[in-house]
Amino acid sequence: MQRIVKSYRKPPEIDNVKCRFEPTVQVIQAGAIDVVNTDPVLHNTHGFYGKRTAFNLALPNQGQRITSQLDRPGLVRIECDSHGWMLAWVYVADSPYYARTAKDGSFSITDIPPGLHVGRDSKLCRGYRHSCDGKGE
Ligand SMILES: [Cu+2]
Q1: pLDDT digits (tens, 9 = 90+) for 28-75
Q2: What are the distances in angstroms from CA 66 to CA 34, 83, 118?
Q3: Cα 113 to averaged position of ligand 1 atoms, centre (Å)
Q4: Centroid of ligand 1 to alpha carbon of 32 (angstroms)
Q5: What is the pTM of this model?
Q6: Could you tell me which of 82, 93, 80 has the C-alpha nearest to residue 124?
Q7: How far is the centre of ligand 1, averaged over its atoms, from the C-alpha of 87 (Å)?
Q8: Going from the N-terminus, what domains does the chain have, and what CATH number goes with each?
Q9: Spacing, Cα 20 to ligand 1 middle (Å)
């Protein structure tokens, strides 16, 4: 099976900004991701596939950037070991054809080759204990 890979000018990134992650939700293709610290404080950015660590990176310096790998498709929860409130989600797609919806729910996926395609959607929430329908848990 031939693996189709989108070409990127640079890897996607997750940044520690004002003690929050930016972005809080993103979809990437399996591969490299840059973990960045814009803040002048230590962040320990820790990614998990469920309970299993995907990466665990100490970033003590402002402007620091470390490239990590998320090669396994699935949902990765991003936490900061230094600041318990920091949370983000990265969905690692096993296909180059994906989109994150805009605030109005719209999305587009371009350059899809002809053939049979099966769609799949995932809902990601911004915080712990809040469901996507706003009811909370
Ligand atoms: Cu932090």
Answers
A1: 999 999 999 999 999 999 999 999 999 999 999 999 999 999 999 999
A2: 6, 19, 35
A3: 41
A4: 21
A5: 0.78
A6: 93
A7: 9
A8: 1-137 (2.60.40.420)
A9: 7
